[in-house]
Amino acid sequence: LCKTEEFGYFDFYTTKPPKKRVEGKVITITYAFTGPRNMEPSGVAVVKNYENAILKIGGTVVQTIPHWWVNGKVIKDGQEIWFQAEKGNGKIWLRIVERKAMAQYIQADAASLNDDIRASGHAAVYGINFDTGSAAMKPESAAAIEEIAKLMKADPALKICVVGHTDNSGTAEHNLSLSEERAKAVVQVLVRDHGIAVERLKPYGCGQYAPVASNDTEEGKAKNRRVELVKM
Q1: 104 and 126 in contact (C-beta within 8 Å)?
Q2: How do strand 20-32 and strand 79-88 relate by DSSP bridges?
Q3: Residue 26: beta bridge partners?
Q4: What is the pTM of this model?
Q5: What phi, psi does 3 have (nearest 5°)?
Q6: Pairing mode, strands 122-125 and 60-65
Q7: Crossing angle (nearest 10°) for helices 110-120 and 142-154
Q8: Quick one: 3 exposed, middle or buried, by C-beta within 10 A (0-12, 13-18, 19+)?
Q9: How far apart (Å, rounded) are the C-alpha atoms in residues 4 and 96?
Q10: Coil, strand or helix: which one is 96?
């Protein structure tokens, strides 16, 4: 059995929590042993075989429990690839993640944001990214924030609500709080780094309650994790 997700994540096992989450293209392969039980390879043999395979291609064994699982990574031509092999119940599970950032669905720019606000009173902004479960903004968010600042400077009378949205991972209460903290973080950067008057901005958290896609897929969740600008 083989399953591929163009963008998703896998939580790689660790000998001590927390697990190591890696995002990117995810491939899951499941092997089922169908021969006589006395011919089935042991967990130790399976793990050792994959350890050797990782090392043979120039990779690094990251962590292992010798009779159960092993994970490692390799960097080839600038591409970071993670592996995990697990043995149990007559099966071998192999997970491979080609690490990469999610491709943005919409590139934020001041002109398109203005068009959306004029047409519908709000605009979705993709490209403002945060650490998982946190309001700590990632450096690559700066470009999208700058476009919001351009929008505000081009129309000095414009006042907006900065609305944070999440997917449905975690509890609804946590997501409401998290989305508001993320909206506040956006407002803070606009005021501090771009000189936008604070009275023109109002942060608001909507949590998981206004999805634009299904939360049943990683692609849908990625679309739901967004910032929206709503004209006041």
Answers
A1: yes
A2: unpaired
A3: 5, 97
A4: 0.57
A5: -130, 135
A6: unpaired
A7: 60
A8: exposed
A9: 9
A10: strand
Q: Tell me whether the omega of the peptide bond preceding residue 18 falls within 30 degrees of 0, making it cis.
A: yes
Q: What is the pLDDT along the chain (232 residues), one digit of tens a residue?
A: 899 888 889 999 999 989 999 988 899 999 998 888 888 889 999 999 999 999 999 999 999 999 999 999 998 877 899 999 999 888 999 999 998 765 555 567 899 999 999 999 999 998 899 998 899 999 989 999 999 999 999 999 999 999 999 999 999 999 999 999 999 999 999 999 999 999 999 999 999 999 998 888 777 888 899 999 999 9
Strand stretches in 35-116, DSSP E? 60-65, 69-76, 79-88, 91-99
Which two three-digit tokens encode residue 150? 């351009």
Please give the structure tokens belonging to residue 32. 């089922």
Q: Which two tokens stand for residue 62?
A: 């990251």
Give the C-alpha separation, 205 to 181, whole Å: 7
